[in-house]
Amino acid sequence: MDLLIIAVLGTLAIAAASQLSDRIGVAPALILLAGGTAVGFLPFIPAVELDPQVVLEGILPPLLFSTAVSISTINFRRELAPVAVLAILLVALSAAVIGVVLTLLVPGLSLAWAIAMGAILSPTDAVAISIARRLGVSQRIITVLEGEGLLNDATALVVLSSAVSAATSGGVSVGGVLGGFALAVLVALGVGWLVGEVSLRVRSHITDPTVDTVVSFTVPFLAAIPAEHMHGSGLVAAVVAGLITGHRGPRMLPPAHRVASRTNWHTVELTLEGLIFLVMGLEFFGVVEKVDASDLGVRRAVEVAAIAGLLTVVIRALVVAPMLKLLSHRTARWATHWEENEEAIHQFQNRCSAIVRGEAEMPQVPWDRRRLARVQRKLRREPSHESIARRALRLSSRVRRRGADLDYFAAEPLRAREGAVIIWAGMRGAITLAAAQTLPTTAPHRPFLLLVAMLVAAGSLTLQGLTLPALVRLVRPAMAGPADDEEKASVISLLVSAARDAVADGHEPPGRSPHDAMDSGTTKPSDSEPVPDTQTESTGPEEPATSETASRPDKAPVSAQDEENEALKPERSTLLRREGDDIVLSPAAVARAWTDPTWRHDELAPMRERALDMIRAQREALLDAGDEGLYSADSLEHALDRLDFQEIMLTSEPH
After folding, report:
1. What is the per-residue pLDDT for 63?
2. Which of 61, 182, 371, 651 could join 238 in a cystine, given CB atoms 3.0 to 4.6 angstroms apart?
């Protein structure tokens, strides 16, 4: 019963902290950390200890999986270079430097144990992402911080394990550490990819969104557990499974499943994050008691923690500054290369279009002749027009993706202002605490090292977390903003084209023949509607109206005049309207009508089927554009959300 009361009170505390954070402007993690510490020092509260394996194996995999599902995979690919630098090089360098310094500050601490402690203090915490996102900084900063948080745990834990092995047995070499890290990552990549793909295929056959959500809760553990047994990184495996799910899910899972899963995962994420910081605060008192009774004392722990915390920021700054310079030079080199080949690229795109029409042969990629040679060798083995057209489309997509990447880098460059935010947002937190508790009981000064880790984590979360808003106001980095008018118009044009293609390629509604459709005067979709604001938070923009006719399935085909009269009846004028020779259909209006009990659903059924075809075609077009990086993640997410909700309305049971 006592455990149940504690669980209920803890859950209520997490909810209260989340609600209070919006009013006082402080992250929920900081509120829970302070509250847990205060409660832990009450005389009638016993010392609390949490098994570190619960955090590493039970809490972190679902948390990282949830973050990976929601991250933009195209942006993650673009920022892979800085993410790799921060998640691998920075962690290894921080562990080594902090380890050397700790050998000088803590008597009797060998270099191996000191490096293990440095690895514990190296990984960053995801709480910085929520603070930075709330401040409204640019998407590039958020993506870099998210990517670093997803991957640096594996590096830190591999270095920690190797250092502990070296301290206990003395048989670990640099080559062994690198080999172990490579094995852990490769195994995790394979297992995570396999679990992500298989789980999506299984979930695509589930009809109940609630059951699908339950299955999704098992995916991070299905990836992490076998990866750990195969000497891989369970956390990286959970991340890879999440990336696969987030990237492939919109194509394979129904909208109702994804919306339900996303909502429930947000609840799980809120609860688990809050639990970590609440327990971290409650544990603080018990650790302080042990250190106070030791020879080193609490004062020295505070001094060592202050120096170690300062080192984490300094080393991070020394790595981030040259990294930004190299990224800037790389972008400038790519842009120059693109400009030099601009005319050839334009000709290449035109030639690819001609290939698809069967009017030309395979062109040369302006900057990649070796890849072209491989493609041409394959084409000699598969000379069919279909295979050539598919490869032409892939090459053309690759060129568009490169151009979109350059536009992305040019629109949001990572300069010194953005670098300052990236440096200061490198807070330590839950992973540092969990990793510190995995130190074996034979480790010298274990309670002292655990207190140092807790002080570094608590200090960085408090100091950097509370001052990050002031730093953003001071340095004024690039901030996230609504999509510009040109991008909005481009998204709407894409939706119109996709709907037009769906009408042209689809079947006629029940009760009509192609001849009847021709008699009714239906032509191409109209794209003359005004461009809606894709960033508004209202009921959402109307989908681009698309030409379509509908007839009652229980009646014979009608003439063009009868069709026009039927379409212009008052109760149907919101769904169909006359534009010249076209009768245009609005999927958004049909979706609202389908959920309205005053409409006759037998009359709506033909229009509903065509609206669903158009919505699904528009989703595929948006996802293809997202794979090529043609639009910002926010614009695509907003448009996809509107399509999802419209499809959910259209597939719901009629009243």
Report:
1. 87
2. 61
